[in-house]
């Protein structure tokens, strides 16, 4: 069982917007602004899409945005494109003995 | 360009040992925390361990404490993961990551008799 809870799957049509949630506790997501989001295509390494809740690394499309409210972080992808179809993982710093935790992952299907 | 290249994976019997290496280039290795993250076949990501820039602090996920040891050689721009007493549940692709922002392509570790 993952420390952070994500929906197993989400879907959307090209051009639409979708949001993926990542729910933790006050010991991780809610307590720190160190939430990251990763995109992973099959057989590939994860790629950082959002760091520190809402920051985009250089080269990442501005169609990707992050936010946080309480113990839940969210990744929003606007203007869905076929290449956005992938698995998405959130991660957070945590005050537990294991300093970093991941969500279970969300499979995004572009219809 | 940041490059991280893992090596050392393979097939090992339960109870055996393996040492993973990660060769870093394209950035000042000694300035960054480094991590190992793994992914079991068809499963999600699991953070395994990380190490501070000078090696003075190391952290591990509970399931590998006492069995795995993370280390680094800043002179060689290399990160290591010594894995002992391996179990079937350690079977995974192991990724080396720079401060959780850049990742290598991974190396597969299979623990099976």
TrEMBL record, chain A:
Subcellular location per the Swiss-Prot or TrEMBL entry: Cell membrane; Secreted
Organism: Homo sapiens
SUPFAM superfamilies in the record: Immunoglobulin
A Pfam family matched in the record: V-set
Gene3D superfamilies: Immunoglobulins
Quaternary structure note: Immunoglobulins are composed of two identical heavy chains and two identical light chains; disulfide-linked.
Major location (coarse): membrane
Annotated GO CC locations: extracellular region; immunoglobulin complex; plasma membrane
GO biological process: adaptive immune response
Protein's UniProt name: IGL c1910_light_IGLV2-14_IGLJ3
């Amino acid at each position: 069982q993952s420390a952070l809870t994500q929906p197993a799957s989400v879907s959307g049509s090209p051009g639409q917007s979708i949001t993926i949630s990542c729910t933790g506790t006050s010991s991780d997501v809610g307590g720190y602004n160190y939430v990251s989001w990763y995109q992973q295509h099959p057989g590939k390494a994860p790629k950082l899409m959002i760091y520190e809740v809402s920051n985009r690394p250089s080269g990442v499309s501005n169609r990707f945005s992050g936010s946080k409210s309480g113990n839940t972080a969210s990744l929003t992808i606007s203007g869905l494109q076929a290449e956005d179809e992938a698995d998405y993982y959130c991660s957070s710093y945590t005050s537990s003995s294991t300093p970093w935790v991941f969500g279970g992952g969300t499979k995004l299907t572009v219809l | 360009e940041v490059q991280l290249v893992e090596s050392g994976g393979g097939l090992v019997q339960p109870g055996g040992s393996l040492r993973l290496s990660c060769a870093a280039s394209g950035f000042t290795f000694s300035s960054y925390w480094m991590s190992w993250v793994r992914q079991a076949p068809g499963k999600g990501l699991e953070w395994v361990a990380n190490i501070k820039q000078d090696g003075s602090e190391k952290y591990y996920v509970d399931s590998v404490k006492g069995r795995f040891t993370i280390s680094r050689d800043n002179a060689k721009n290399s990160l290591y993961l010594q894995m002992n007493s391996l179990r079937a549940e350690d079977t995974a692709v192991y990724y080396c990551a720079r401060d959780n922002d850049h990742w290598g392509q991974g190396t597969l570790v299979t623990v099976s008799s």
